[in-house]
Amino acid sequence: MRIRVLAATFAATAALLAGCGYDATPLPKPEEAASSPTQAATPVECDNATQSYAPSNDKGAALKQLINKGRLVVGVSGDTYKMGFTDPTDGELKGFDIAFAQEIAKALGVDLELRVILASDRITMLDEGKIDMVARNMTVNCDRWTQVAFSSVYYNATQKVLVGSDEADKYTGPASLAGKRVCAPTATTSVANIKKIEPDVIAVEAANHTGCLIKFQNSEVDAITGDDTVLAGLAAQDPYTAVPKQEKLTDEPYGLAFNKDDVALVRFANSVLDQMRADGRWTGIYDEWLKPTLKVDATPPAPAYGR
């Protein structure tokens, strides 16, 4: 499978060791869908945001929904260390999210084209037909289901807070952030979540977590909030930051996102994810990219269907 990388540009900071940067993080029984896999389906009432469409092995129907014949175009991050980042040793895009994009393209039997995008561009680019899929630590929620279609959840992240290493022992929870400047990427759930949890936080937005890290290093913000996957990557690279021991702020279930009309493509992706959970590929990808940083064992999320 050939991978073509487009626009893999990102900001550099003084703390980016080895030249890396980062970005911005229910078990119903599967049911047979009423509509044909080749037809667009109107999402049902969102009682459970993690419910996706029942899986299907109909590769032909999925291929018909690709923007370009013989190619899967996927929007990814280029600077989220361990999730989707440009490896400075060879210039290749790698990471946990990238590995899932590779598996979907391989199953479809097509080339994979990776496009580095901002979090704020994910929904717009799907809606405008510029990409087929997003694999960019995207949280599944009911509001987004009105705009895009999601695969079953492929990773359960949680939102936490990163502070300076000299402040880590003093952090006792969100109340510690009252009156402090906390950075999160624009158009992410992290911004709304932190304001809801601690209204006295001074929310500061940046294009991505690289921008937040730059602001932190320039003393423009006091903390950064985001998914534990992203924050762990930041802390692993910058010795002056730390993710203190803390309770999660929110659950952030990740799903692969598609144009809301591409139901056949979603169904096929779900069949691939099911196979990856069963044959050990999910665990292998987790062990390679996230376990060394998060330092905990993990099992793949059980899929939820019924949409």
From TrEMBL:
Annotated keywords: Signal, Transport
Gene Ontology CC terms, in alphabetical order: extracellular region; outer membrane-bounded periplasmic space
Boundaries of every Solute-binding protein family 3/N-terminal domain copy: 71-293
Signal peptide span: 1-23
Xref: InterPro entries: Bact_solute-bind_prot3, Solute-binding_3/MltF_N
GO BP, sorted A to Z: amino acid transport
Gene3D superfamilies: Periplasmic binding protein-like II
Family membership noted in the UniProt record: Belongs to the bacterial solute-binding protein 3 family.
Protein name: Polar amino acid transport system substrate-binding protein
